[in-house]
Amino acid sequence: MIKCHLSRILGERRLKVADLVRATGINRKTLDRIYSEEVTRIEFDTLEAICKYLEIGIAELYEII
């Protein structure tokens, strides 16, 4: 199982999904699904944009449990 830490990271930084949408241009529905851990796959471009905006590595965003 893979755990996404986007909700925790955004919460710690007091950011909203809307902030991420504005900064990255990623579709709101896509980010909502990532935030809610409902995705089964993710585009590398999307992953890269999220990590660059948050200034984190992939391992900080996703974890294998």
UniProtKB/TrEMBL annotation:
HTH cro/C1-type domain span: 6-61
Gene3D superfamilies found in the cross-reference section: lambda repressor-like DNA-binding domains
Coiled coil stretches, renumbered: none
Molecular-function annotations in GO: DNA binding
Superkingdom, natural source: Bacteria
Pfam families: HTH_26
Protein name: Predicted transcriptional regulator
Species of provenance: Rheinheimera sp. BAL341
